[in-house]
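Record format v2
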Amino acid sequence: MLARTASAIALSALMTAPAVAQEVWVSNERDNTISIIDVPTLEVIETIEVGARPRGLMFSHDYKVAYLCASDDSTIQVIDTATREILHNLPSGENPETFALHPDNRHIYISNEDDNITSVLDVVDRRIVAQIPVGVEPEGKAINHAGTIAITTSETTNMAHWIDTTTHEIFQNSLVGSRPRHAEFTTDDKRLVVSAEIGGGLHVFDTETFEELAEIRFEIPDVHPHDIQPVGFRLTDDMTRAYVALGPANRVAVVDMQTYEVLDYHLVGRRVWHMTMSDDETMLFTTNGVSGDVTVIDLTRQEPVKTIKVGRFPWGAAYRPADS
Amino acid sequence: MRPALRAMTAILTREALRFVTQRERFLAALVRPLIWLLVFAAGFRAALGLSITPPYQTYITYEIYILPGLVAMIQLFNAMQSALSLVYDREMGSMRLLLTAPMPRWWLLFCKLLAGVLVSILQVYGFLAIAWAFGIRLPPLGYLAVLPALLVSGLMLGAVGLFLASTIRQLENFAGVMNFVIFPVFFLSTALYPLWRMAESSRLLRDICAWNPFTHAVELIRFALYLRLNPESLGWVALTFALFLALALWGFDPARGIMTRKTR
């Protein structure tokens, strides 16, 4: 009887245990690899060889494949998340750096840095379906949750271009600080947030009026203002917090998105670039380019807990939940 | 109460009373590391550079790095201060009175040593509380886990002080000895910079730091504050304690030690 009960418990444990643990994938720009971090142990468990100069990295909405900008190969690589194999390469236009996946899980909007173009890729037909001329050196990409607006930021033009995803035309331009790097919409699509690397601020826009609601500035004791360069950031689903990577300041800022006040700064590795967050929003993973590592911040305790060595010049990071 | 325990209680009480009545001593014990922490460390925040060394798992500010070294510094100064008071007691004659008590000499000296360590632990917790108020915080359980490490490191430093006290003839000589001991011991350790930083400037300096028992006291405290045991440091600290305690007992032995030569 006891043995039977034990077997039943073991079987039930096996059934409830996640077959795939949570993972964080990190693109290493200088090593042409992806490091895979096992989230429960916070260790690198695998390194995948990929194309030249991997930068932008994201998962499909169903997490079955990962998309990677292999910039120097001018292609988007599709990687099977289960087998870790590169399935095929997709056309991307010249020198893709960052991208965003439409909620339809089919269209990817890509920044072609050298051609001043935003390309729209159909991942099912494996072809570019539109090319939209934008400002000089397009970089940041965002698509709203409704899937109606795509944003491209241009590093040299210092603008956020608002693109209608139906017509593939720019219908609005917003001036932002110098060298805008990254853009994101809040969960309710009412606000657009853009980081300006050289400008040193985070710009918040109203998506209906296109008015700038706030510019969030950062100040860190003992850090020269020139070293405070906001790049990647993440907004929480409840829209109360933004976590902002401040580049050579080696800090991640915690911003209250209701009052636009900076609440705290967390010390991370050198030249913090981009980041990803766990699905329960309890952990943040930052890529630290120069020090070649990823810092894990416990968001419940609001404290960096571990820094994990990855490849050279980690650039992008993407979180994959358990059992996906 | 057994006589041995009664003797211990008496010695501890005497030292505690002395500690309570000498408020300036407590203040001085806190001011010194606080200046290092809030002035020196703030100015040298960028000097450390970035490198993760155990027990740290991620990047830390210089204030966090320097904290265990300053804790050990409190214990080092306290040990020297206790040694100074021993020399004073000896000059005043109260030491002779103590050592003629019907108790084993080693027990009396050990009680004296323990009393000094307990005072240093009080000073350390006062310092950590002020550092906490200034936002320099450690893992909460680390404040508890460091207690045994403080006891061991305090005993080691106290034993060194006891040995020095046994070798010093006059109170006037002690200031020189303190400078001669405290500065090299403190600066040639990992209290201010990690070993890899020392190695960058000189391999020899790094090796001296690695051999310095004070380095091991600092590292024992550092690891304990992060809930980890550093067995190598514990071994070195225990060994140094045993060695200097033996030397001090020999020094205070009127039949064989330095006391004989001094009283001649």
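Helices of chain A lie at 2-16.
Chain A touches chain B through 13 residues (CB under 8 Å).
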